[in-house]
């Protein structure tokens, strides 16, 4: 796994997605496999399904199916590390700047940052909470979701799925209004 440190993992993106999910940074398992949220204890894929974003539980190796559902994945910080606490404040800030440019180029309906701590650090929003944010990037709205890492014991898969479903419903309403 250590050989995967600092590797980059390609985004799963397309223009005009309904929701662009944004992780903190790739973990070593993700970097080793090239598949986002690949660590076995990560709850992203089960929560994505439980919340109704996908019709079935996808495996990390099936991530390229996401754009067919209007979904994509990127990260605040591109380089892989064993833990998010290995990232510097400057990496978060620079990642936020690069993410803003990526969102302006891709124009998703929603940017969903999975991890309130990462959102706070990347965009200098120290009081941000999980849920919809005031900040926008052009016409792209922002929603902060709980981090699906197995280390985030504050949220169960079920309570996370409820929050993800709130975003799914908001994205559906936004689409219906367009």
TrEMBL record:
Family annotation (InterPro entries): MUG/TDG, Uracil-DNA_glycosylase-like, Uracil-DNA_glycosylase-like_sf
Enzyme Commission designation: 3.2.2.28
CDD domains: UDG-F2_TDG_MUG
Pfam families xrefs: UDG
KW DNA damage (keyword) present: yes
Domain Uracil-DNA glycosylase-like: 10-171
GO molecular function, one term: hydrolase activity, acting on glycosyl bonds
Gene3D superfamilies for the chain: Uracil-DNA glycosylase-like domain (3.40.470.10)
The entry's keywords: DNA damage, DNA repair, Glycosidase, Hydrolase
Top-level division of the source organism's lineage: Bacteria
PANTHER family documented for this protein: G/T AND G/U MISMATCH-SPECIFIC DNA GLYCOSYLASE, G_T MISMATCH-SPECIFIC THYMINE DNA GLYCOSYLASE
Name under which the protein is recorded: G/U mismatch-specific DNA glycosylase
Lineage, top ranks: Bacteria, Bacillati, Actinomycetota, Actinomycetes, Kitasatosporales
């Amino acid at each position: 796994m250590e050989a995967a440190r600092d590797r980059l993992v390609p985004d799963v993106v397309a223009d005009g997605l309904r929701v662009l999910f944004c992780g903190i940074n790739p973990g070593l398992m993700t970097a080793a496999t090239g598949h986002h949220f690949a660590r076995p204890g990560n709850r992203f894929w089960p929560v994505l399904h439980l919340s109704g974003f996908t019709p079935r539980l996808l495996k990390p190796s099936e991530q390229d199916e996401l754009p067919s559902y209007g979904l994509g994945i990127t990260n605040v910080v591109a380089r892989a590390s064993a833990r998010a606490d290995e990232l510097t404040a400057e990496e978060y800030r620079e990642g936020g700047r690069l993410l803003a440019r990526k969102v302006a180029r891709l124009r998703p309906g929603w940017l969903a940052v999975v991890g309130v701590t990462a959102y706070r650090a990347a965009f200098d929003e120290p009081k941000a909470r999980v849920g919809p944010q005031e900040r926008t990037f052009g016409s792209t709205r922002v929603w902060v979701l709980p981090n699906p890492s197995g280390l985030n014991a504050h949220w169960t898969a079920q309570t996370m799925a409820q929050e993800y479903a709130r975003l799914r419903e908001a994205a559906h309403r936004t689409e219906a209004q367009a």
